[in-house]
Amino acid sequence: RKVFTGDQVLRVNAKSEAQIQLLKTLENGEVFKLDFWTHPSSSDLPIDIHVPYASLYAVQKFLQDNEIPFHVMIQDLQELLDKEQEDLQRNAVKGG
Amino acid sequence: DTKSFDYATYHRLDAIYSWMDSMVAGHPNLISKVQIGSSYENRPMYVLKFSTGGNNRPAIWIDAGIHSREWISTASALWMANKMATDFGVDPSVTSLLGKMDVYLMIVTNPDGYAYTHTNDRMWRKTRSVNSGSTCRGVDPNRNWDAGFGGPGASKNPCSESYHGPSAHSAIEVKNIVDLIKNHGNFKAFISIHAYSQLLMYPYGYTCNDIPHQAELDSVGRRAVQALSSLYGTSYRVGSICKIIYQASGGSIDWSYNNGVKYSFAFELRDTGRYGFLLPANQIIPTATETWLGLKHIMEYVRDHPY
Asked: Which terminus of chain A is less hemmed in, N or C, by CB atoms within 10 Å?
């Protein structure tokens, strides 16, 4: 089973078209292995990015350097997945 | 059985398929299970057909879970199937709808991907097909339809989450649905249920041009969202895919609209800003309940506006 320990999901609120374009370059790049849960299209909609632990520092620095506002939506993806798995197993036992 | 089935939790594929049999057994005069083909990994693809009889009646298509990690979509569809079955004969609106039209509900549109999210990678989105010449697997089944195929908002890179595949309808999961819709020939609505971000969308995605029925679909969508929001105040946006999210080619509702199914919509269910694809199970029933109100409004409109 693939694990996501330390991975975060960042919620980015771009303020301008220029920032949207910067986020598109981030989306098109393959270096950081990002998974865009929602995509950069307009400053009206937030952009959620699943960032692997190994890329966290670089991505956060990119956002800060370009003054793109963001906050951490999911602190540790694996923790959430572990909880979901526990719930599933508990319910399966209950149902079984 | 369907009464003891826990709709407030997520389930594995085998449990869902077993539940389908219970649904059919519990409502033999209303529901049948139709196998429309098999997935890439040879899992059966089932549709629950709600029908009170008649031959080739006008029909409504609803699919959920085309993107496998969007578990809330499938979980909501399970609840809504049960709601439609139990409301038949009780709720005049549902009774009238099923008296005139058939409803085809596909609860797990991407069974290989769904199974994979339960066993290997919870964040898997695509199908599980092998891509020739690449180590990366899967096609984005919502970029593979013959609607601006290969255009903006889809990737030619097999490693991308939005890989459109080698050709339109190359994904067997897509082709099976296309064949069913075309062979049937009398679908009046095509509704696709996704997650997340709280949107109700209509075509187009592959172009930002307005569809000919833009005003009507926008109006239907806004009223559907009013109904949806009336329960918990959940805020939805309404618009065309291209204008409300981003330009995306090869999508299912663009294909259905271009093939004559006027009432083509896509839902993006909860949430916004806390859990993304990992919506906790205690949100399933509230999400399904509110979505049902929006969905029912669309179905009622389709029933009352034959074309």
From this structure: C
